[in-house]
Amino acid sequence: ACSSSAATNFKVFRGTFVHSTQEEALVILEDALLGVDSTGKISFVEKGPELEKVSAKFGFNPSAVTQLSPQEFFMPGLVDTHIHAAQYSFAGTALDLPLLDWLQTYTFPVESRYSDLEFARQVYTHVVKRTLRNGTTTACYFATIHTDASLLLGEIANDFGQRALVGKVCMDRNGLHEHYKEETQESLDETSRCGNTFYIININITHFSRYPLVKPVVTPRFSVSCTSELMLKLAEVARNNNLHIQSHISENMDEVRLVQELFPESESYTDVYRKHNLLTSKTIMAHGCYLSDEELQIFHQTGSSLAHCPNSNLSLCSGLLDVRKVLSHKVKLGLGTDVAGGYSPSMLDAVRRTRDTSKALKIQDPVHQTLTWEETFRLATLGGSQGIPPQPKPSFRAFWS
Ligand code: GUN
Ligand code: FE
């Protein structure tokens, strides 16, 4: 697992490591050695007391090892699978309306301000710094409809060292705010411009990414604000360029009913996205509180994943997602803060609200099997990384045993 050319450049850490695997929700490795190669990838995990042997094998200086104190431990970065960077400006306020009214009254007017790049720079700098400080090393962001501000968000995330998926939001109908809507063709052209700048030009043509930590994500806001034509063509953009897709699904009952009215020919909310080719193995759908067993089966079959956003679900009184049921259908699931429907940008808060929601479900139904905190930790780390695979994951167990 280790290449000798990188051997002289290892950074080696010693201490307690806490992480998750598919088999075990929480693994604690006490007094372990972890080596990171010059590209930033973990190359080995070995036993601390075998320092002499390990340093000889991998060729590093044992006195240069960084040792943690007994009170400290290492853990994987937290993955926020759903956060609206632009809404950070009003996080913690305006939570007195249900979803559709909340969007019209508070959210669209604020998002319309991101044509102002100075305003965008201020808010986006704050949200990236804050989430990093809270342990979010990877974030899947919704920006706004504005391409230039979305590109700026990518630049800022990259500069501060956060891995980010950045979505220029697409919405060509039902944007009742007169300054916050786009035409279908404009939405498509701007999505391509955004993707080209982040990705296609950088990687395919020059073989050099301007923002190596950042990827574009195709972002139809949700079925309510997108025409059939826009969704079909966005799916094509995603397929032609092998891009991630993100949107919202089945968050609130009024929304579910409205989607049924807007797409009467579809069997369910999930069927709307499936018919528009938006359910792929690189799709992340937020919420999913009211998905039926049949819909969850479609998620499983297509390999699409869900972002569970418990703070937002509670704050906007949207619903209670039964994570146990989602997992029993073998659907990939991570956690999201959904700022500003969720009032906290911290993924540790998302962990707590995930357990609160699970316990609320148990109050309603005493046979409900609550999520353990070990499982919830796994959802916030490994769970999120399934929807947003950063790199193939090293298996600590394989090195260890
Ligand atoms: N559905 C469509 N847009 C949004 C949004 O900005 N926040 C939340 N929570 N749900 C949405
Ligand atoms: Fe959201």
TrEMBL record:
<feature type="domain" description="Amidohydrolase-related">
    <location>
        <begin position="74"/>
        <end position="385"/>
    </location>
</feature>
<dbReference type="Pfam" id="PF01979">
    <property type="entry name" value="Amidohydro_1"/>
</dbReference>
<dbReference type="InterPro" id="IPR032466">
    <property type="entry name" value="Metal_Hydrolase"/>
</dbReference>
<dbReference type="GO" id="GO:0008270">
    <property type="term" value="F:zinc ion binding"/>
</dbReference>
<protein>
    <recommendedName>
        <fullName>Guanine deaminase</fullName>
        <ecNumber>3.5.4.3</ecNumber>
    </recommendedName>
</protein>
<dbReference type="GO" id="GO:0005829">
    <property type="term" value="C:cytosol"/>
</dbReference>
<keyword id="KW-0479">Metal-binding</keyword>
<dbReference type="InterPro" id="IPR011059">
    <property type="entry name" value="Metal-dep_hydrolase_composite"/>
</dbReference>
<comment type="similarity">
    <text>Belongs to the metallo-dependent hydrolases superfamily. ATZ/TRZ family.</text>
</comment>
<dbReference type="InterPro" id="IPR051607">
    <property type="entry name" value="Metallo-dep_hydrolases"/>
</dbReference>
<comment type="subunit">
    <text>Homodimer.</text>
</comment>
<dbReference type="InterPro" id="IPR006680">
    <property type="entry name" value="Amidohydro-rel"/>
</dbReference>
<keyword id="KW-0597">Phosphoprotein</keyword>
<keyword id="KW-0378">Hydrolase</keyword>
<comment type="function">
    <text>Catalyzes the hydrolytic deamination of guanine, producing xanthine and ammonia.</text>
</comment>
<comment type="pathway">
    <text>Purine metabolism; guanine degradation; xanthine from guanine: step 1/1.</text>
</comment>
<dbReference type="InterPro" id="IPR014311">
    <property type="entry name" value="Guanine_deaminase"/>
</dbReference>
<dbReference type="GO" id="GO:0006147">
    <property type="term" value="P:guanine catabolic process"/>
</dbReference>
<dbReference type="GO" id="GO:0008892">
    <property type="term" value="F:guanine deaminase activity"/>
</dbReference>
<keyword id="KW-0862">Zinc</keyword>
